[in-house]
Amino acid sequence: VTEGSIKVGGKDVRSYDMETLRNEVAVVLQKNVLFSGTILDNLRWGDKNASEEECKRVCRLACADEFIDRMPEGYNTYIEQGGSNVSGGQKQRVAIARALAMEPKVLLLDEPTSALDPEMVKEVLDVIKQLANTGITMVLVTHEMGFAKDVSDTVYFMDGGYLIESGTPDEVFNHPKTERAKKFLASVLV
After folding, report:
1. Which letter does DSSP use for residue 35 in this model?
2. How far apart, in whole angstroms, are the C-alpha atoms of residue 158 and residue 139?
3. Beta carbons within 10 angstroms of residue 137's beta carbon
4. Which residues contact 84 (CB under 8 A, 6 or more apart)?
5. pTM as predicted
6. Residue 60: which residues within 8 A CB-CB, separation 6 or more?
7. What is the pLDDT at residue 150?
8. 31 Cβ contact list (under 8 Å, min separation 6)
9. Which pairs from 154-159 meet CB under 8 Å and 24+ separation?
10. What is the largest CA-CA distance in the chain?
């Protein structure tokens, strides 16, 4: 922070030590990796001490429970290295649940739907909409303008590392500068 302030949990980031700050932020990437082991093992990567009930709770939040419950061994189903035995949408929902197991104050979603088919995009979008009501601050990085418009409270258009426009979705999407700034989009859900 070079001017102004950025606060996480109401506390200026400059007053955190780096490890504590990093533990307050969870990240879901566009290409998440699941590890070989059970679904529970993968979920506990977010919190190694998470109980099975806590793992089930975050899976309900991430809408992952519906497909896990149908698997032969449920939460004890073995995941192949890289998650090769689950679909892209299933992998993404487990990754979201794993991030939620950390109980972050900030959830960074970097292009969480980029590699998904349209049906899976809708499922992940529904998950993100549900998470918007949990009190977690979410930062969504996306090139999908419609996606940002559907789930954002505040939108920031960036181009070449510069802020072009910010405001509510209606303000930004109806602003003349927005047409020039379609390359990069980051939206913040508050």
Report:
1. P
2. 14
3. 18
4. none
5. 0.78
6. none
7. 74
8. 115
9. 154/187, 154/188, 154/190, 155/185, 155/187, 155/188, 156/185, 156/186, 156/187, 156/188, 157/181, 157/182, 157/184, 157/185, 158/184, 158/185, 158/186, 159/183, 159/184
10. 54
Q: Which residue has the tokens 């508050």?
A: 190
Instruction: State the Cα–Cα distance between residues 120 and 88, nearest whole angstrom.
Output: 8
Q: Which residues contact 63 (CB under 8 A, 6 or more apart)?
A: 93, 123, 126, 127, 130
What is the 3-state composition of the chain as percent helix, strand, coil, each rounded to the nearest 5? Answer: 40, 20, 35
pLDDT digits (tens, 9 = 90+) for 72-93: 999 999 999 888 899 888 888 8
Convert 95-118 to b/e letters by CB count within 10 Å (16 or more is b): bbbbbbbbebbbbbbbbbbeebee
Residue type, 160: G
The whole-angstrom separation of Cα 178 and Cα 158 is 9
Portion of the chain with pLDDT greater than 90, in percent? 26
Matching residue, tokens 């990754």: 95
In sequence order, which residues have a C-beta less than 8 Å from that of residue 150 and are 6 or more positions away?
A: 125, 129
- The CA distance from 71 to 38, in Å, is 12
Report the residue count for the chain. Answer: 190
